[in-house]
Amino acid sequence: MDNQTKKVLILGGGIAGLTAAWELSRQNISVELVEKSCFLGGHAIGFTCKATDKCQQCGACSVEDMLKNVVNEPLINVHLRTEIKELKKAAQFNIMLTQSDIELPDSQIKNLSSGKAAKGFSKYNNPLYVTDSDKDNMGSSCQITADAVIVATGYSPFDPNRKSTYGYGNWKNVITGLDLENIIRENGSLVRPSDGQKPQKVAFIQCVGSRDERLGNLWCSEVCCPYAMRMAGTVKHDNPNAEITMFYIDIQNSGKEFPVFYEKIKQNIRFVRTIPVDVYPLENDGLELRHMAEEEGSPSSEPFDLVVLSVGIMPGKDTVKLSEVTGIPVNEDGFLDNAISCCSFSSSAKSTQASQPSTSAASIAGLFVAGTAKGPASIAASMADAGKTAFEAMKYLGVMK
Ligand code: SF4
Ligand code: SF4
């Protein structure tokens, strides 16, 4: 059978879904790529380049490169603002899709020239391949058959409002790492939301929402240590006079290059081993962090111009619904369990099951999970996992041995 007569449906248009779609199309397999929101690229399409005097290997540009591949590939059919409603397996998968009522955020609307669907190349990480919030088709459904299904629906960032003592939403200069990305992308450098000035004293608070017993989130999000360090390096490169402090529990070592990178960054960034308890407002929109530093052994406080919360990776908001529709179980941490595990997704101290390869946790042959839908992972790890999951799908389809 010609490979092109094989069809795979992929749920999720973030980096894992894009990578899987591209890898399948390269083997002449048709792909239906279904994305709930109005644009492709997921969270990572909003990430900015963190190069200083050299590339920091953050992976953000890989997302845009992959987008360019996908939007120009005729074998990949993209469905935006579309959700799965029903999945049944007989000889093939029968999937019912429905138009979602999600609206395009203002930040993306301004990139739409015609007000309708746009497809093209982006610069400076602007989303590309977006559609407007055309309400005409809202609620309409369509039926698709596919030979295999890959679920790559990604993650949700931790909601910083749940850590109310940090004052996110109350104090303008308390921001998240994602806010920091947006500020740098829009302004070319880090400026304070309150006055547009470059902050001189910046604090990063690690493990916000992760490794938190009170929240029941015991897992390490794995990416926020290297992410925050790269960001801190970018800010320092842009403003060498800035004093940057990172408050942490442990530093998550990721990859063989990391120890060298960490040693280098320690020359410019101050590391304090404690997690601040409270953030209070000061005059001129300054912020006071109160903490119990390990080396000092007593409560202390320190003023900062800007505080960045390194929010963790949480299960996607629709995970339970997806689990009900697809039959894929949810693990102890709330992520989708592996149908095929290809990379190390050691998402939790208490959840070891997720890192174990298994052929079909969902007990449905031909149904796979890729990327951060099953646990925290970096852009590079998500891409690698998606590539391997696509390979497993091809083996299932008899395209690969
Ligand atoms: S986006 Fe990241 S990986 Fe790409 S050039 Fe910039 S620093 Fe390097
Ligand atoms: S990578 Fe792990 S240790 Fe580092 S900030 Fe994130 S949750 Fe904390």
Please supply descriptive tags for the structure shown above.
401 residues; alpha/beta; FAD/NAD(P)-binding domain; 2 domains; 5-stranded parallel sheet; 18 strands; binds iron/sulfur cluster
Q: What does this protein look like?
A:
The protein is of the alpha/beta class. The protein folds into 2 domains: 234 residues, FAD/NAD(P)-binding domain (3-Layer(bba) Sandwich); 152 residues, FAD/NAD(P)-binding domain (3-Layer(bba) Sandwich). It contains 8 helices and 18 strands. A 5-stranded parallel sheet has the order 3-2-1-7-18, covered by helices on one side. A hairpin with a 5-residue loop joins β13 and β14. About 5% of the residues have low confidence. One iron/sulfur cluster (SF4) binds next to α2.
